[in-house]
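Possible race condition, two jobs.
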Amino acid sequence: MFAKVVNAYEKGGEADVRRYLDEVRESQHVRAYLLDEQGQNISGRDLPRWAEALAKGVEPPAREFWQRLTPSPFRRQVLVAGSGHRYVLVAFLPPNDPSDRGAFLG
């Protein structure tokens, strides 16, 4: 997914990233945001506080008791594209996701 969203940005700009991430949100219920090498949000949506913190490498604290007992729903991944540009993808995965949470960013 990460390589696809970066490719969408490098080929089609912010509008393509927004479209792609909207499709991911609708189909997989994943809230994801793409940031450039300066830390600027290029996903075309307002960046929530949890995403800002996660982009800086700070995982948001668990607010609910159940969140302390389950794997973190937050993901952060850094990618250097073929163009040489560095991107950060941050995501909030849906609760009770039966699939492998690590496979999402692959």
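Job #2 (started ~2 s after job #1):
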Amino acid sequence: MRPPCSKNNACAPNWPAVRAHGAHPRRERLRVIDAADGYRARILCDQFQGEIDLLLSDVVMPGMSGRQVAEQLRTLRPALRVLYMSNHHGLAGEDLQLLEKPFDRNRLLASVRSALS
């Protein structure tokens, strides 16, 4: 399997939920900053010295929404791309890149490639 693209660092609050859909970072050649929630994502991304290419986040999370996480991370990393995940299908018309749940591994990887291109 080829990597999603030449960029390969992603910050993913709630990565275990993504892994449940069949995506494993080593197999996909992704380097993932796995954060338990939005607050932890902010801390880990602030401490990470390398480039972060993508935020992969649920729209709705306890404590801090995916949009709030994206806004805060973009103050530190303005070029950060964002791919949201949601099972709230009414969001599809909004101005955001959205991966609707449920999804399989192939759709996840295609969405990551698209978000990074």
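Confidence is low (pLDDT under 50) at residues 1-6.
Logs attached separately.
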